[in-house]
């Protein structure tokens, strides 16, 4: 093993100066006089160290390279940090990729760490305060100064069968769910019990984790699909208008669905008027496709002076929960996730906007809520994460809005949106057929994002920030940029029948949604590091991966085109048409579930609603009166949008 430590030369120690000022001004520790920072690398499995130092780990004139920790006897405190266990480290991944370019047939292992040296009149309490501010336990851990022990990975055991699940009563189901960290509701646990009871077997851990992920609110919008059994309207000054709106909605519902006894839900309330316009033919520019990853419309615009038929896509992404817990990764994958959806539709993303909500970033560190990061830390680090991803992929940010309100202290708002376009002639929409293949293209799979879908769908407590590390995805804009280039190639975009990005749910959702019959070989899924078991491979939400369905005859050329963009493309599944999703790992079947059951979304929740007067303490007389005198609803709507007081 070779150890390298890299520090900046004097004119380029900007990070050290920023940290010094932040410790003095924000943490209120005036006794600190100096900060030194070093990036450390423990490298094994690679021989040409001198070339790696020159071409990968340092920049001449900017960096000083050490092969052991330099003498820092005057430092009051010296500590090292590295990525928390199970967390993906992009610096490590990038280093390995670059070392492979120098020695193509090597299998290097790089462990990255950072050494911080503090100087001045600093007490033990001050040091603890500094560490608490700069070490987010969800993503970073303090390690010995000797560095990270690479060692050998622990070989995972076989996938466990959850014994007695198919015959369990309610009390036993609740206990089994707690034992295996399954967060689905009791009604869904009972539904799964009945399913596997009919199968005359107990489920594997993988099967229950996949169902838990597949049916999460994040993946199946179960809250918005909740059946509304009854709607009551309290008597208030808006009652007449609300009842009139309710009647109009019922007419629209009947017009769109006819005699279909479709239950009422929030999703229909939100989308009914668009469905009505589409059925009446007044929304005929909407692209009709089974791929629904982004809002997609068909337009004709001039290109080089000639009319061209284009597909234009819009997509927004919220990453409130991940950004609250791990601001850099959460905000960066907010943008990355918004990009991936139209990209999976083979459209090129041209611009983005960002809308966020934060508590007061100027508040004292001492006023931070228990179990949360300081508002300043969240705000600044999230901004760095979002901009880092946008810069890495080459996407301009056209609009930025950040709102500061005490309400956002409980939970941050992080929203990104993008617009994309592509020539209609360059996009093919097909249907998977038995004999087709599913190819994974892009990044490798790690533990980052394991449980992200279920994690963002469950309640959190004071311990979430230390326990939810693997739930937060880690983005890699460089790989996504390569996928952008790949998907702009005519052969590639026209050979893809269907594409899904690996957002929430990982392999089980991205591949499971593609067809009603699939055979998935998890041993073929490329990994970032050894030691992942079949369940982790099935549900990991590692970013910058796409699942594409191809005719088998196009497979070889597709892999060649991907390699030209420095992307791995590997066949991981076959379309079977059996009506079952099957997963194997180590040659053993660890999941076999009917597609119909998997896609059911579980037990539909039900509720009753009572509509009360909105904001009864607010005077509504001024603005509604101004809008009411407008000659038509359209004018009133536009006037309201133009209201500068809003």
CATH topology of the largest domain: Phosphoribosyl-aminoimidazole Synthetase, Chain A, domain 2
Query: Which assembly state applies to the chains in this document?
Result: single chain
**What's the main sheet like?**
7 strands, mixed
Percentage of β-strand residues: 15-25%
Point out poorly predicted stretches: 452-458, 464-469, 622-630
Tell me the number of strands: 20
Radius of gyration: 27 Å
Identify the CATH homologous superfamily of the largest domain.
PurM-like C-terminal domain
Structural class by sheet pairing and helices? alpha+beta
Query: What CATH first level of the largest domain would be assigned?
Result: Alpha Beta
Q: How are the strands ordered across the major sheet?
A: 14-16-13-17-15-18-19
Tell me the distance between the termini.
Answer: 61 Å
Shape: globular
Taking all residues together, what is the mean pLDDT? 88
CATH architecture group name of the largest domain: Alpha-Beta Complex
Percentage of residues assigned to helices: 25-40%
């Amino acid at each position: 093993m070779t150890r390298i430590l890299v520090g900046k030369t004097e004119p380029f120690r900007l990070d050290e100066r920023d940290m010094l000022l932040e410790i003095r001004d924000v943490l209120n520790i005036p006794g600190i006089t100096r900060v030194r920072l070093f990036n450390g690398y423990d490298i094994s499995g690679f021989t040409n160290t001198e070339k790696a130092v020159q071409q990968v780990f340092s920049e001449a004139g900017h960096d000083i390279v050490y092969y052991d920790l330099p003498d820092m006897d005057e430092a009051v405190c010296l500590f090292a940090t590295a990525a928390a266990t199970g967390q993906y480290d992009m610096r490590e991944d990038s280093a390995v990729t670059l070392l492979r370019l120098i020695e193509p047939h090597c299998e290097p292992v790089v462990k990255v760490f950072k050494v911080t040296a503090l100087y001045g009149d600093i007490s033990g309490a001050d040091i603890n305060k500094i560490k608490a501010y700069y070490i987010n336990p969800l993503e970073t851990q303090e390690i010995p100064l000797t560095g990270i022990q690479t060692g050998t990975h622990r070989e995972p055991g076989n996938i466990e069968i959850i014994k007695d699940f198919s015959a369990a009563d309610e009390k036993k189901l609740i206990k089994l769910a707690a034992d295996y960290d399954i967060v689905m509701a009791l009604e869904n646990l009972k539904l799964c019990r009945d399913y596997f009871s009919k199968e005359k077997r107990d489920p594997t851990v993988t099967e229950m984790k996949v169902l838990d992920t597949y049916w999460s609110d994040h993946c199946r919008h179960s809250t918005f699909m909740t059946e509304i059994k009854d709607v009551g309207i309290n008597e208030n000054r808006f009652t007449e208008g609300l009842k009139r709106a309710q009647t109009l909605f019922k007419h629209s519902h009947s017009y769109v669905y006819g005699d279909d006894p479709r239950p009422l839900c929030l999703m229909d309330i939100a989308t009914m008027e668009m469905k009505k316009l589409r059925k009446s033919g007044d929304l005929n520019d909407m692209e009709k496709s089974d791929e629904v990853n982004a809002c997609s419309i068909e337009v004709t615009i001039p290109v080089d002076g000639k009319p061209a038929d284009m597909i234009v896509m819009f997509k927004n992404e919220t990453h409130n929960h991940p950004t609250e817990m791990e601001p850099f990764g959460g905000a960066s994958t907010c943008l990355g996730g918004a990009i991936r959806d139209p990209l999976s539709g083979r459209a090129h993303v041209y611009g983005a906007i960002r809308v966020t909500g934060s508590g007061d970033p100027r508040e004292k560190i001492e006023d931070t809520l228990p179990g949360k990061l300081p508002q300043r830390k969240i705000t600044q680090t999230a901004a760095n994460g979002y901009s880092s991803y946008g810069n890495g992929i080459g996407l301009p940010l056209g609009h930025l809005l950040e709102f500061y309100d005490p309400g956002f202290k409980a939970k941050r708002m992080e929203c990104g949106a993008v617009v994309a376009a592509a020539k209609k002639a360059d996009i093919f929409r097909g249907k998977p057929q038995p004999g087709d293949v599913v190819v994974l293209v892009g990044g490798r799979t790690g533990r980052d994002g394991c449980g992200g879908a279920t994690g963002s769908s469950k309640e959190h407590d004071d311990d979430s920030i230390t326990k939810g590390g693997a739930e937060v995805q880690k983005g890699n804009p460089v790989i996504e940029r390569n996928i952008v280039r790949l998907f702009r190639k005519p052969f590639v975009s026209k050979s893809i029948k269907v594409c899904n990005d690996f957002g929430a749910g990982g392999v089980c959702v991205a591949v499971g949604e593609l067809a009603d019959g699939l055979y998935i070989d998890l041993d073929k899924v490329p990994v970032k590091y050894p030691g992942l078991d079949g369940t982790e491979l099935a549900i990991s939400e590692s970013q910058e991966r796409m699942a594409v369905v191809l005719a088998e005859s196009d497979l070889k050329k597709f892999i060649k085109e991907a390699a030209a963009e420095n992307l791995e493309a590997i066949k991981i599944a076959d379309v079977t048409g059996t009506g079952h999703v099957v997963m194997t790992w180590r040659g053993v079947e660890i999941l076999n579930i009917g597609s119909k059951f998997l896609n059911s979304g579980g037990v539909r929740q039900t509720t009753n609603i009572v509509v009360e007067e909105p904001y009864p303490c607010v005077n509504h007389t001024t603005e509604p009166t101004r809008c009411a005198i407008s000659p038509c609803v359209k004018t009133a709507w536009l006037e309201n949008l133009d209201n500068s007081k809003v």
